[in-house]
């Protein structure tokens, strides 16, 4: 006999579904086996990518404090963030220069 992880009632060792609460026990075991099980939503990789796209260098604390990344992973994501920020800054400066040039050509 073992306890159900959802309702704590006694169930058979071979049980796949709890007869008391109706939860599937295999799902609970699989959730524990996933790499990102227990990781907060804002530390998951898709969210980190979104933070980089939206916040650029302000996303670095989400990278540095992320428990699922190794030191090499944190260095990689830091370099990606800095490169993206620099590239976006260069692009913005070029567009601003084009804007000023077009204003100058209009004679304003």
Structural class: mainly alpha
On the 0 to 100 scale, the average pLDDT is: 84
Order of helices and strands: EEHHHH
Strand order of the largest sheet: 1-2
Total count of strands: 2
Helix content estimate = 55-70%
- How would a crystallographer describe the biggest sheet? 2 strands, antiparallel
Number of helices: 4
Terminal CA distance reads 84 Å
Taken together, the total number of domains comes to: 2
Q: Would you identify the regions where 5 or more consecutive residues have pLDDT less than 50? A: none
Provide the gyration radius in Å. Answer: 25 Å
Tell me what portion of residues adopts beta-strand conformation.
Answer: under 5%
Q: What is the global morphology?
A: elongated
Describe this structure in words.
Helix content is 56%, strand content 4%. The protein has 108 residues and is mainly α. It has two domains: 1-33, no CATH class; 40-108. Strands 1-2 form a two-stranded antiparallel ribbon. Strand 1 (2-3) and strand 2 (10-11) form a beta hairpin. The protein is elongated, with a radius of gyration of 25 Å. The termini are far apart.
């Amino acid at each position: 006999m073992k306890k159900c992880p959802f309702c704590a009632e006694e169930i058979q060792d071979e049980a796949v579904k709890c007869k008391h609460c109706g939860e599937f026990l295999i799902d609970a075991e699989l959730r524990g086996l996933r790499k990102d099980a227990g990781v907060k939503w804002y530390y998951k990789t898709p969210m980190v990518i979104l933070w980089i796209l939206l916040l650029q260098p302000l996303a670095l604390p989400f990278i540095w404090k992320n428990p699922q990344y190794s030191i090499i992973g944190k260095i990689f994501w830091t370099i990606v963030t800095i490169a993206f920020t620099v590239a976006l800054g260069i692009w913005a400066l070029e567009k601003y220069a084009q804007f000023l040039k077009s204003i100058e050509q209009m004679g304003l």
